[in-house]
Amino acid sequence: MGRPSPCWVxxxxxxxxxxxxxxxxxxxxxxxxxxTKGKARSRDLEAAQRVLRLLNGPQTVPTVLVTGSxxxxxxxxxxxxxxxxxxxxxxxxxxPGLLSNLDRFTLDGAVVGVxxxxxxxxxxxxxxxxxxxxxxxxxxxxxxMTVMGHAMLTGAGAEVIVHEAGMGGAHDEISxxxxxxxxxxxxxxxxxxxxxxxxxxxxxxxxxxxxxxxVAWSVPQSPIPxxxxxxxxxxxxxxxHTVEPGEVAAQNLALGRALAGSAAREWAILPPTDGPEVRRxxxxxxxxxxxxxxxxxxxxxxxxxxxxxxxxxxxxxxxxDRVAWSAPRTKNLVGIADWLDREGLPHEYVTLAxxxxxxxxxxELSRRLRPRPREGLLGTVTxxxxxxxxxxxxxxxxxxxxxxxxxxxxxxxxxxEDTNDTRS
Length: 424
Prior knowledge:
Elements lengths: L22 H13 L6 E2 L1 H12 L6 E5 L4 H14 L4 E4 L11 E3 L2 E2 L2 H18 L5 E2 L2 H15 L4 E5 L14 E6 L7 H4 L3 H9 L7 E4 L4 H14 L2 E4 L5 H17 L20 E4 L5 E5 L4 H15 L4 E5 L6 H10 L4 E5 L11 H7 L2 E2 L11 E5 L1 H10 L24
Parallel strand pairs: 1-6, 2-7, 2-8, 3-7, 8-9, 9-10, 12-16, 13-14, 13-16, 14-15
Antiparallel strand pairs: 3-4, 4-5, 11-12
Helix pairs in contact: 1-4, 1-5, 2-4, 2-5, 3-9, 7-8
């Protein structure tokens, strides 16, 4: 345990500088297949498996898999942090990143160096070109990030890798990996355009990640996902444990710790009860603007998530004076607006120019929400304002404020190495 990393950050691997990502290469390698998918609507998992084999070779590293609708990132990062604290070299593949695609990938909390990342993008580009996809499927951008991250962390000496699902479960690329255990966060009616038309269908996609004999942990689920989970347990014989009910963030922390403890049994070790503090910008943190206004940024895109974030802000500040929120038309915009109105919260709907997401609202909804552009938003911010919405929205705010990140938890166990190893 704890062997040195061949290369991850520093020296020839570079620092975690998102401004130096080769964006043209990233676009071609990660999004090329998706852009040319035509009418294909399903991910080609077999092609993704072939890409993984080209990148990873015969090496295997055990994984912890996390799926669900809300809190996956917190759970996955908590599990990785506790596994690192136990002395294991723990990798983490998040989906999506916090500030850029670099921080999708961490090793013992350290964000990957940009030069190392660019080298792996070149490998991915070559592998995707060699494999291609079937006419009826496509290589998902998030899935390619998943398999590249797994290979990259394997090559860097990770002993266990925690994977956060990109979108889904049974048909997500994390389903390709051998797992030590599986975690299920709260399951909500999300991505109904992909997994719907209703919550039951979403629950089948998430819970369908479980295989025969799996060990899994879950937060308490609402009745429909709970019923689906019980049917999956009966079919697979999976051993599923439930953490104690409580506040959302507390449940997710408990779930992350439980997953780390379950996985660490493979090495006959026990992670410490109090792992290192996890720092994930834009996930419910409070920031001060240059004028001293308190703002909170969180990635909440449904009424349940919004309620949890507002409750946290009210706990910290006493009250919330304003909400600015942004989500594409595929989300439950009416449900979010109705909830904010019922709470009596002044709010404004924000669109992102140049985004790949669809903000073209139907006329009636546009008249109700009166969309405003993202530009100039921070210049009008007042005290006790909560920003809710997509990762893209939160990231744009954080980067405008100059927030950076080179690690998500400590202590620092990754030495900065200067190596010209062609395998790195």
